[in-house]
Structures are given as structure tokens and as C-alpha cells.
Amino acid sequence: MKPAAFRYHAPRTEEEALAILAAVAPEDGRILAGGQSLMPTMAFRMARPAHLVDINGVAAFGLLAAEGGVLRIGPCVRHAMLGAPLVGGPLGALLGTVRRHIAHLPIRTRGTFCGSLAHADPASEWCLVSATLGAEMVLRSVGGTRRVAAAEFFQGIMTTALAADEMLVEARLPLLAEGTRSGFYEFSRRPGDFAQAMAIATFTLDGGVMSAPRLGLGGVEDRPCRLPAAEAMLDGQPPSAALFAAVAAAALPGLVPMTDDPHRLRLAETAIIRALSRAAGLPE
Amino acid sequence: MDGTTHGPDDARMAAGPGEAVGRAVTRLEDPPLVRGRGLFAADVNFPRQIHMRVVRAELAHGLLRSVDATAARALPGVVAVWTSADVAEIPSIPFRATKVQGLEPYCQPVLARDRVRYVGEPIAAVFAEDAYLAEDAADLVAVDIEPLPAVLDAAAPPAEFAPGLHTEPTIVRKGFGDVDAAFAMAHAVIELDLSVGRHSGVPLETRGAIARYDAARDLLELHGAAKKQHWNRDEIARLLGRPPSSVHLFEGHVGGGFGVRGELYPEDLLACAAALRLDRPVKWIEDRRENFLATNHSRQQRHRIRAAVDAEGRLLAIDDVFFHDQGAYVRTHGARVVDLAAGMLPGPYRLPAYRVAGHFRLTNKTPAATYRAPGRYETTFVRERLMDAIATRLAIDPIELRRRNLVATAEMPYPRPLDVLGSDVVLDSGDYAKLLDQALDRFGWKALRESIAARRASGECVGAGLAFFVEKSGLGPSDGVRITVDHTGTVELVSGAASVGQGVDTVLAQICAEALGVGYSGIRVVRGRTDRIEFGNGAHASRVTVMSGSATWQAAQAVRAMALETAAPLLQLSPEVLTIRDGIVQRKDGATEPSMTLAEIARQMGPNSPAMRGRTPGLTAEKWFWSDHMTYPYGVHCALVCIDRGTGAVKVERYLVANDIGRAINPMLVEGQIAGGFAQGLGGALYEEFRYDETGQPLSTTFADYLIPTATEMPALDVLIAEDAPSPLNPLGIKGAGEGGTNAVGAAIAAAVDDALGQPGAVTTLPILPGTVMRLLDRAAP
């Protein structure tokens, strides 16, 4: 479990980083941010990048700011920084809840939000957050910048819209409106393990009925997904255990789980019900 | 005579806490560990050392057509690459002999010869200037394997191991009584088909071997040893054609043993052979993936068991056929786990007739051997499942059913017409019924049943279960200890035991301190070294405290007697009126004068002392404790579980281990043993499993796939240490405490899950996985 040899690059600016990436991308050059997925993979020699571009020295990549209705998250923002005290409001509350489920404390202080998105593990909590809330990804290379919606960014198991010479230089999460309620539920064998199913629900309650509902499911299909049909069932309805059960049951037939284990669908059902119940403040 | 078997006239340790014994004193081992000054295998380095990397099979079964190391040898920094041809003269890894014959052809070669039989089997060894280069070179070794079908089910008919040999080296048969007659006259016959999954000890510290040849003294040293130093030394010497006195093993700190670490493995031989042949120190540190693939697995068995009972639920006979999945080769334990399973299955119950056939089967998986409570974790699960099934069939309360069958105190010592590990099974002492009562009382069983009823009424899925077990410990035949007081009064204790982190140094020091009349904390304990004592049996089978502890007691008594005899004439008093307190010989009546320190006495007994002329000098004694029979601790596990209906997850909310170990030398260490042992049992019950795909590829090769319980999975654990049944077999009355925390966890949790589900007998397989529980929940749903 010693990594194969690689060349180490330590750029100090974004321009420098992108230039190096452009040069080394043909040789499987990789970006090193938190390294919490990449380094173990290299130790197993399942990844053998000839170059590592360590972006931790790029000061601007620590960007974390709420501006213009979005939370801007730079490439070196660690899991532990998402949520209180750095991020407030309803979005901060949701992120703070979710981050506790990400692996273990040492990993949360090193691993990065953008790194998780770029890695695109189907069990990634941040990928689910991004898909559910409709994040926008800012992808940049020496050739220019493009913006990609979460729905197009995630393309399968550990597959994204990123080209080899592109870096995810920013993720933009829409801030949640004041009063937005959110619920998150994840099932894993032990706390900190990879999610076998997880769901996020957000909505506001106006006059006792749900509006602007969003419901996302992760860990089940090969990428996180929103469930628009389920959201339509929720919109304008008062929250209730019966409705949530019906929504979950209706969502299952359309899913394409990564495994043929029937247990995974049962977990998906439970995750949906519990995320909705938590958002609504109902007993699970 | 300095070798003794315990007899009725020997000095027994007084009951109750003493000056040093029976007290939760802090560990002697801890100062270097908590200061980061420990010496684990990876901490051992020698100048000019090279690093070994093992090339391992990536197919489960196949004919080894060729191994091409040309490219690897050409890599700068590579010192050598060995294939089986380079180690052809080294015999296969041996096993410790039992009466089971014919296992030799199934032993593992140091490097695979013409076939590979499991993913992870060593095929070649690379030696290079650093560990990175060694791994680079290992990647360059080209291996050509012609695949063969993999045998993965030990219960399937045997297949070919090699031409003329099939995959069932032996069947272990035991039994007594007229089983057929018992079944013919039975009121009821209960049959079960039960399986225990493949899991094992996964030490935090992986294995390591650092071999060094000291040409100046013609000594081969192996560092990083654990568990069985003397046997390993003797075998390494034999396999490499050297006299045993020219090979020495050294144990540093050991980051977990559990039965798997410290056995003799191919890598140990490779490192030693390379140190001799390449004339450089050789360092090998197993990585985690290798640890999952190469270190002994354990546990996997399938039992088809049936019981004949009378109308009151009394056992008339048990008939068990089981299949033990040994993996690809016979390892150093031979068929020991099968022997233990067959011999220990009856547990605490009166059993008139018994027949067992343990099929020892080879498969194309990592070889297996002992893991904490070997053969007992499996058979306690099987036996206690059987008792629960009998209770269900006859509509008898499961606790009452057990009471009816428990061996009574009046029947102790209770001989079973069985042998295990070559010694006759005689349950030496016990009050099983009393401990059952104590456990139920401590767990609050009656109130618990009421609270479970209330919680169920509010929709929760909760249940409780229990299991009784009998352990074995103190495996003989012998262990020795030499205790010496030097001229400064410092006590040194040299033992043939080993430490796998369990607190051996502390426990032996406490016993020595108690007998000798000195403080325990100043005693220097030496163990795990073949250069300091001629023989030793290491640390396994919950034997150290019993065997080495008893030898310590006797050696310390002998030193004490020598000290008093030497001091008495100088103090002009009779030895009978003298005692030793805090290392000072003084009057028993409390008078402080006259007195003499042990240091002064040691000087009186030195080699230059005129008083010693013609005698062997030194205030020192070596004693060997011998034992023909094992001693049998026992206990009860109680579990309360809650099942999440939405996920199938089982949460253990409360757990009790009640364990009678005769005498707790250090209750804190006993509790530690039980808590750690419980965690491992919990792993096997709910989390840990080495899984394979249909081609024999291992699926559990990281800690993300092989789930061990962590702090968040540990329930509130209560430990009841009972001392109601001291062993008559040793002067301390002790029984081993290393495995009772593990033994019955699978059994008790299975019973609790059954109870929560309201489906008696639902759990037939360990580990109990959420998906399985979900199916059982669905089965019960209207």
C-alpha cells in the first residue's frame, strides 16, 4: 500500500494550477485537495496518477461566501466548514446536519466539498445536497470557464462533466429562503460508513401546506437524483405520515438501483419517509 | 524438584483480595505505550536493511504456469526476486501435532509451486532498497495462471486438492453413549441447519517480520514475533537447517493478537531465509489489504444438528454433522478448531449421548485457524440455538429449559467421555445455576420483560435473549518461570509466556509480589524472548495466567523460602516467625527489628559470598507448572436489542457478560478482556464477514467493506465477574478470562433478535445482516 511514483506540483495561483493541469492532464494528472479519497486509492495503486497538482497553497480557493442568493464554495473548503458557524440560515442548518454524516472527524477536517463533487461517489452526501438543491458548478480550464447544472454534472458512478484538464473551481448552492424546512436521513451500517440510502427534503409550510418542495435521493442509483413526480405529490398538500408513505411508495418503481438487492429499495423508501418526516417535524 | 503439578498439599493463594492480587492496579505495560515509546514491529529497524514485498495470487484457484521476474530484477534498487524455485529446499509450513494424522500434504509452501489456491497466496518475494521500490518491482512480476474452478462451499461434496488428494483431509469424530437408541426413544427430535460466517481477528497492528543475521555470533534473529516464540523458533530453525540455539525470536509490543498474529506464516520464513542468504537485514510489514487476504481467517462452519429430548425437555442425545471451511491450506493449528468445536459443543449441559462428525474441508479462500474462542463461538451459537428451539417446541420457558439441563454443582468435577486438544474433558468446578440466577438478577430480567412488553405495545420492535457458555483455558502441559532477586533487590521474572497486549507483565508481577512480599510495580517482567528462557508456550488459549501465573506463584514461593532460610540464621530467628513485607524480611508479629532487605540477602547469596561455597549462587528459583487437564470457566450473556423496522438494523441496547473465572488477579484487566472480547463477538454477530464472489474473489479487503464494531456500536456493557468456583487444578484457583467475553455473543444476540421479531428460530446464520432482518420483518407482516 505504497503509492506508485508521481510528480508533485504545488501551484500558488489558480492560473498556475490550471496551466499545470493542462500540461499533466494527458498523463492522468490529478488535483489534490483534501486527498481523502484519492490518497487511499493511490495507496491501493488503483489510481496511478503520474502527477499530483496540490491546490492547497492557492489562497483564493478557500472562498466561502453567501452572495447574490448563492453560497459560493471554493475548492479548498473542508467538509467541517459547511454549516454553523460559517454558514447560517436554513441552508447552513441543512449543511450542518448533513456534514455530521460524512465519514469521521479527521476526514471532515481535511476532505473538501468540491473534492466530493468531483469524485462523484454515489454515496456522497454533498453530491446529494447539490443535486437536490440544484447547485451550479463552475468548471475552468486554460481554455475557459463553463457553468454546469448539477443535473448535468453528475453522470454516473464517479463520472462527471469535468474534462481531464478542467477544475471545479467553485460550487454554487442556492440559499434556502427564510422559513425553509429541511430534513435529512441516511442509512449506513455504522455511523460514518458509506450511505446505503439517503434522502433530503426541503419545503416551506404556507398555511399548513407544503410549497416549493424538493426531494432528493442518494446512495441508491448511480448518481444522486431529484424526484420531481414525488415533489408534485407533495406540493400544496399538508404534511402527513400517510402522504409521505404514499410518496415513497410511488417513487420506488421508477428507481434504477445500483444493486439488485431488494433491501436497497426498502432503505430508499425509509430514507424518503424519514427525510420528509424530519422536515415536517413529524415522528418517524 | 522444580517442576510441579498442583496437588492438594501445595500452598494455595488465600481467598479474597491480597496485597497485590485481586486488585485493579494499573498496568506495568502502559508507561512506554502512553508516551509513544512503544516498540511495535514497524518500529524495528536495522542498518542496511532491505524491504520485502510479496507478490500474491490474484486468482482463487489455478495452475501456476510461469512466474517471470525478469523485469522486476532489472529495476534499480531491487536486490533479489524469489520464486518457488529459489526456496525449493524449505519445507511447507508445519502444524502443531495432534492425533489427527495425514494433514502434511495439505500444508502451505512458502511460495506457491504448481498451483495457487486462494487470492493472496504468496507467489514471489521481492527484496529491494525501500518499500516503495519493492512494491514497484512486485508490480512488474508477470504471473501466468491457468484458472481452475474455485471450491467455495465447504458443505458441497469434496473436490480435488491435488492429484490423488481431495479437499477433505480428515473428519473429526467424537462421541459417547447410544445415540441411535436415544433418538429412537425420544419424545421429540429437533433439527436445525445453522451457519456461522467467516470472520477473524483483525489486529490494529498488522503482522511484521524483521529478520537479521548476526554473522559475528552466527545468530539469526527474528523481531516482531508474538504468541508462540519458542515453537516458531524451533520450527524456523528446523526448516532452515540450523540448531535452535542459533535462532532467536524477540517480541516487542503487540498491537493485537487474538489468535491470528504470531503464528508461523510463509512471510516469516521468507524474511529469515533472505536475511541469511542476502546477508542484509530484511524488513517486512504487512499492509492492511494483505492482512485481510493473508492472515488467518476463522469461524466459518455449517452445522446440521439434531437433538433428542424427553417430554420435560431434558437432552437425551445430540447428533451433529458440521462442515468447517478451512480455506486453502492446513495451517499451524492443523485441525484444532474442528477438534475444539466437536469437543466443546455440549457446553454446560448434562448429555447422555453424543455423536459429532466435523468435516475438515479445504476451499479456495484464505486459510483459517483459531480466533478468540475458537470452536466455541461457533458451537455456543449452535447449541444455544438448539436449546431455544427445544424450548419453543416443548413450550417450555428457555431459561427453565436450561436449568433442567445444566450440570449441577454436586456433579462437579464432571467428566465427559470426550477429549479436546488431546486432554479429557473434565468440567473442574462450577455453580452454573447460581451464575444464571445472578446474571438474570443483574440484568433485571423480570423487569426487563415488562418493559419490553410496554415498548412493544407502543410499536417498538425489541427483544431480549440469553446464552450460556462453557469456556476452556489453561491448556498444559507446562510453563516455567524463573524469578531472581539481584543485589540491588530488584526482582526479575523471566517467563516463556508472551504478551499480546493483555497485561501479562502486570498479572505475573502481581502474583509474584503477593507471594514474595514485594511491590508489584518494581518487578521487571521478561517474556516473548527465546534467548532468556529455554522453553515456553507463549500466549494463546487463555492459558498464560493459569499456567505461567501458577509457575510464578510457585517460583516466588521458592524464592521467598530461600530468602527466609538465608535470613533466619543471620537474624538469629527461626524462619517460621519471619515474613517479607515491601522487600524486607522481618518478624511476622510486626516488630520492625531485626530486619534484612532482599538486596542484602541476595548479596549474601552472591557468587563471591563465602556462605555460598559449593552451592549454586543467587537468590533465584525456576519452577515449572504442569497440568494434565484444562480448567473450564463459564458464563452467561444477556442481550437487549432493538430492531429498526424501516431498515432492518439491529441495535444492541444493553448487554451483560457474567463470567466465573475462579479468581480475578486484576479485575480491571479481566473487565478489559471481557469488553474487548465482547466487541469482537459483536462483530461476528452483526458486522464482520469475509465475503467472496462466485469466482473466489474476496470482497472484504478494506475497512470500508469489512466492518468491525467501533465505539458507536458498543452498547452499554455490564460485566459481572464471579469467583464462586475456583479451579481445583492450580494453586491460585484461576481460570482463563480471555475468551468468555467473545464466546456467546452470537448466540445471545440471535436469541434477542428472535425475541424482538417474535419468530423463534428465525436467526439461523451469523452475521445477522439488516437485509436478512428486513426479510424476516416482511415475513411477519400481515
TrEMBL record, chain A:
Gene3D superfamilies named in the record: 3.30.465.10, CO dehydrogenase flavoprotein, C-terminal domain (3.30.390.50), Uridine Diphospho-n-acetylenolpyruvylglucosamine Reductase, domain 2 (3.30.43.10)
* UniProt keyword annotations, A-Z: FAD, Flavoprotein, Oxidoreductase
Query: Which stretches are transmembrane?
Result: none
Recorded hits in InterPro entries, A to Z, give: CO_DH_flav_C, CO_DH_flav_C_dom_sf, Diverse_Substr_Oxidored, FAD-bd_PCMH, FAD-bd_PCMH-like_sf, FAD-bd_PCMH_sub1, FAD-bd_PCMH_sub2, Mopterin_DH_FAD-bd
**FAD-binding PCMH-type domain: from which residue to which, for each copy?**
1-178
Q: Which residues form a coiled coil?
A: none
Flavoprotein as UniProt keyword: yes
Organism superkingdom: Bacteria
* Pfam families, alphabetized: CO_deh_flav_C, FAD_binding_5
Q: Which PANTHER family match?
A: XANTHINE DEHYDROGENASE SUBUNIT C-RELATED
Descriptive protein name: FAD binding domain-containing protein
Per the UniProt record, the source organism is Roseomonas alba
Automatic annotation (TrEMBL), chain B:
Indicate yes or no for the key word Oxidoreductase: yes
Q: Which SUPFAM superfamilies match?
A: CO dehydrogenase molybdoprotein N-domain-like, Molybdenum cofactor-binding domain
Domain called Aldehyde oxidase/xanthine dehydrogenase a/b hammerhead: residue spans: 35-149
Q: Name one Pfam family in it.
A: Ald_Xan_dh_C
Q: Where are the transmembrane segments?
A: none
Q: Does the keyword Oxidoreductase apply?
A: yes
Q: Which UniProt keywords apply?
A: Molybdenum, Oxidoreductase
Q: Which InterPro entries match?
A: Ald_Oxase/Xan_DH_a/b, Ald_Oxase/Xan_DH_a/b_sf, Ald_Oxase/xanthine_DH-like, AldOxase/xan_DH_MoCoBD1, AldOxase/xan_DH_MoCoBD2, AldOxase/xan_DH_Mopterin-bd_sf
Top-level lineage group: Bacteria
**What is this protein identified as?**
Xanthine dehydrogenase family protein molybdopterin-binding subunit
Q: What organism is this sequence from?
A: Roseomonas alba
